[in-house]
Specification:
185 residues; alpha/beta; Rossmann fold; 7-stranded mixed beta sheet; globular
Length: 185
């Protein structure tokens, strides 16, 4: 059985999720993932995107890249990040994306699994610097639905874009695995 079929089977039949959407039809893009309230978001996102026939890289805190998880995370497309080095991380990611022909990068704009009002704008910087599109992605633990949706309009006004992006998630009515940790207001 193919990786796609195995991932789709686990996500839908075993875990009971509904998979919504298709892989993003461009070679390079950023997929936002919210609400990010649990480490399980990584697992279900991996199963989802592979289950619909895509392959995305995902940013994971460098602390997790130790035995026995390191090889598994790298196999799953995880990119280690030192969260204390914002500017150098962005430069590192720009260089990494430029080297590849296909690079779908899944990013949690909250930057943490804890409740936070200040979302990280690194995806905005990457999108602008690389001239690649950003798409909405979501995991709704309340409805057990995960998907990718339309393209995000990215402008020169980062603050207005962040407000609009947060509002999209509010309007979507998504619920995190730990709802008290999702605070887009």
């Amino acid at each position: 059985m193919s990786k796609q079929k195995v991932c789709a089977f686990i996500a839908t039949r075993i875990m009971g999720w509904k998979l919504v959407g298709k892989p993003i039809p461009v070679p390079k893009c950023i997929i936002l993932g919210a609400p990010h309230t649990s480490i399980w978001d990584f697992v279900i996102s991996f199963l989802f995107y592979n289950g619909i026939g895509g392959h995305a890289k995902v940013i994971v805190k460098q602390d997790f890249f130790k035995w026995p998880l390191k090889k598994l995370l790298l196999w799953a497309g995880a990119v280690p990040v030192d969260r204390g080095k914002g500017a150098s991380f962005v430069k590192h990611m720009i260089d990494a994306v430029k080297k590849e022909d296909h690079f779908h990068l899944a990013i949690a704009p909250e930057g943490t699994r804890k409740a936070t009002k200040k979302w990280k704008a690194g995806f905005h910087t990457l999108s602008t610097a690389l001239d690649i599109p950003v798409y909405y992605g979501y995991f709704d633990w309340g409805r057990k639905e995960i998907g990718v949706a339309e393209q995000v309009l990215i402008t020169d006004d980062v603050e207005a874009d962040m407000k609009r992006i947060k509002q999209w998630y509010i309007d979507k009515g998504v619920t995190g695995k730990h709802p008290e940790r999702f605070d887009p207001y």
